[in-house]
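Entry 14. Structure prediction run on the chain below.
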Amino acid sequence: MFENLTDRLESSFKLIKGEGKITEINISETMKDVRKALLDADVSYKIAKNFCDQVKQEALGQNVLKAVRPAQMMVKIVHDKLAELMGSEHSEINIKGNPGIVLVAGLNGSGKTTFCGKLALNLKSKKGKKVLVAACDTFRPAAIEQLKTLCSQIEVTCYSEDGVKDPQKIALNAISLARREGYEVVVIDTAGRLAVDNELMDEISALHKAVNPTETLFVVDAMTGQDAVETSRIFNERLNFDGVVLTKMDGDTRGGAALSIRAVVDKPIKFISAGEKMEALDVFYPKRIADRILGMGDVVSLVEKAQEQFDEEEARKLHKKIARDQFNLQDFYNQIQQVKKMGNIKDLASMLPGVGRAIKDVDIDNSAFKSIEAIILSMTPYEKENPSMINGSRRKRIAEGSGTSIVEVNRLLKQFDGTRKVMKSVSSGNFGKMANRKRR
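Output returned:
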């Protein structure tokens, strides 16, 4: 996400490195390169030009502190303006009501139905809401079955009516059911088309008026760039939606939609979605995205992801096991599963400052864990708890059972032994002392 834009902006800031102060000449050269970077990211010319003019105006009016180099000051100004361009502060979804009604609109292929499932899981797991999803896309034959499958995976009720083609009737019946059975939020999946047309706009407008949603979200495919911005403008004229959802952020997206939509429709981006996993949905924080674009990482989001997946009580138990040198391969396997739930490993690593650029060309994905998982799963409970007792014959059996080699089994056991020693050392050192002080 934003990798190309990040590289181009970093190159732009190099033009001012080594300069003693910000001048009309060096700022013009830098902003010319920044404008090219934004245009390459599929940001419209008008928005890119206005952005660069604002940055230039603010930079020339700054008194650069002696302790801050001009290039650092430029990064700070560009960061603030990027965040401002995308909306400055994040905007919460409105689910207040009896029930709260979220209408989801968008074109076919934008990831709309998948987003409905992700949103339902998000509201259920993070906000503790009882959610009902209404299948109102009667235009695409597979949409209802797809939504049913997704809802089954996340254990959320999906409401549909076989043979009924009227989306208003299905939606209103779903809302009535929600009121009777205590559902707090109804998420309505609507029909899309392959392109904007009058039939689509009339249908979605009528449905919007009939259900009177507390929140209307427009889903756009981030890979469509300026097309996404134009589609957003057309839908907003008819629906006056409350926010935008950018999907497929893990694809070949250049970032133009994220940087342009707010300026065009004056509506916040509320969520970004990457990948097919139901957990792969993030609240859109403009300042954090600006951090990522400028290669500063996003440690706050990384910590939040970790907090969502790691149970505090389980963490305490694990700490005790490490301190007593009882950390075993089953614990190691469990930790791998927790990390995988946080998302793609490369995306997580890129949230660390400076790491994203370093691993840009490195192929890292969750499949890297497959051989490790296979080896551990081929062990008996006794072997997982007592790795030191795994002798040569056991290693041969484990290798054959996991479809790996004895060399790979030996490597894992050696790495695990080293990891356990380091963890015990850290636990008994400063980290352990800090934990004890906190408990007291």
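The chain has 21 helices and eight strands.
Filed with the rest of this week's runs.
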